[in-house]
Amino acid sequence: VQLQASGGGLVQAGGSLRLSCVASGRTISTYAMGWFRRAPGLGREFVAGINWNGVTTSYSDSAKGRFTVSRDNTKNTVYLQMTSLKPEDTAVYYCAAKYSTRLDDRFPYNIWGQGTLVTVSS
C-alpha cells in the first residue's frame, strides 16, 4: 500500500486546515492509521490515531480539543481536521498505517507516506 498526504499549506494562527491521506495499492480498511509530524529541528511526534473502523481515536495532548482524525474506508482515505492552529503546529505532517486493526497494541506503524508541510504564521 502507498500513502499520499495532502492538504498542507500556509495558514494564519487561529486558522484551520484539513489534511487528507489517500491510500493506493490495497484497501486500508483493516489497518489502524496515524498522523505524525516533524517540526524543524525536532523528532517525529505522534499527533492522532484511528482504529480500523473509526470508532476509537487517540490524540496527543497538543492535539486534543483542536484536531479531529477521521476516515472513510469507502474512499481509502484518512483525514486530519486541524483547527485553532498555532505557530508551534508548523511541521511536516505524515500519515502512517500499521498491520493491525487496533491502536493499543504493539504493532508499529510501518507504512509511511510522503508528508505535507503545514506552516502556521503568527
Described by its quaternary structure, the protein is single chain
- What portion of residues is helical? under 10%
- Ends distance: 37 Å
- Main sheet overview: 7 strands, mixed
Overall average pLDDT: 96
Strand content: over 45%
| Secondary-structure class | mainly beta
Number of helices: 0
Radius of gyration, in angstroms, nearest whole number:
13 Å
The total count of strands amounts to 11
| Global geometry | globular
Low-confidence regions:
none
H/E element sequence: EEEEEEEEEEE
Explain the overall architecture:
The chain has 122 residues and is mainly beta. Helices cover 0% and strands 52% of the residues. The strands form two sheets. Strands 2, 4, 5, 6, 9, 10 and 11 form a seven-stranded mixed beta sheet that branches. Strands 1-3-8-7 form a four-stranded antiparallel beta sheet, with no helix packed on it. It is globular, with a radius of gyration of 13 Å. The N and C termini lie far apart (37 Å). The mean pLDDT is 96.
Write the layout of secondary structure elements.
Blueprint (H helix, E strand, L loop, with lengths): L1 E5 L2 E4 L4 E8 L7 E7 L5 E7 L6 E3 L7 E6 L4 E6 L8 E8 L10 E4 L3 E6 L1
